[in-house]
Amino acid sequence: MARPQKTLLCIDDYQSSLNLCKIVLEDFGYKVSTASSAREGLEIFASHVSDAVILDYQMPEMNGELVAAEMRRTKPRVPILMLSGWLPLPESALQLVDEFVAKGDPVEFMLLAIQRVLSRGEKRKPVRPVDRRREPKRWA
């Protein structure tokens, strides 16, 4: 019995990166939805089922960290892989995602990262916001 096809959502404002992502992933048997803006990506994420998200960090209207935070708020168990050519990324952004791949890395790195997040699936624990009232007091 064949395994069901996994659906990935790719969000990137750079159209050529989005097209390349779609072509490569479809060649490897994934079903791919695309969004060319953060807002469009959030709309698709809210209204469709995605097994994982591939998200660009640097976008004009809303960066990948803000998009990932919203995704974690609404569907915390969907794995997120962040891509970026802009390095280094803020630690706060990396804490929201399951994997990171630099845009200059070979395509195989992205494929392996996707396999890892999909194999972990529902095992991921949701990210919880920090409760500032419970933080330890710092010595002055």
Offer a quick outline of the entry:
The protein has 140 residues and is an alpha/beta fold.
The percent range for strand residues is 15-25%
Relative helix content? 25-40%
Q: Any idea how many domains?
A: 1
Please summarize the sheet with the most strands: 5 strands, parallel
Please tell me what the overall shape is.
globular
Kindly state the mean pLDDT as a whole number?
A: 86
CATH topology: Rossmann fold
Helix/strand-derived category reads: alpha/beta
Tell me the strand order in the biggest sheet: 2-1-3-4-5
In CATH terms, the superfamily is Response regulator
Number of helices: 5
| H/E series | EHEHEHEHEH
Radius of gyration from the CA trace?
16 Å
* Number of DSSP strand runs: 5
| CATH architecture assignment name | 3-Layer(aba) Sandwich
CATH class: Alpha Beta
Keywords:
17% strand, 5 helices, Rossmann fold, alpha/beta, single chain, 140 residues, 5-stranded parallel sheet
How would you summarize the topology of this molecule?
Elements: E1 7-11, H1 15-27, E2 31-35, H2 38-47, E3 52-56, H3 64-74, E4 80-84, H4 91-94, E5 99-102, H5 107-120
Parallel strand pairs: 1-2, 1-3, 3-4, 4-5
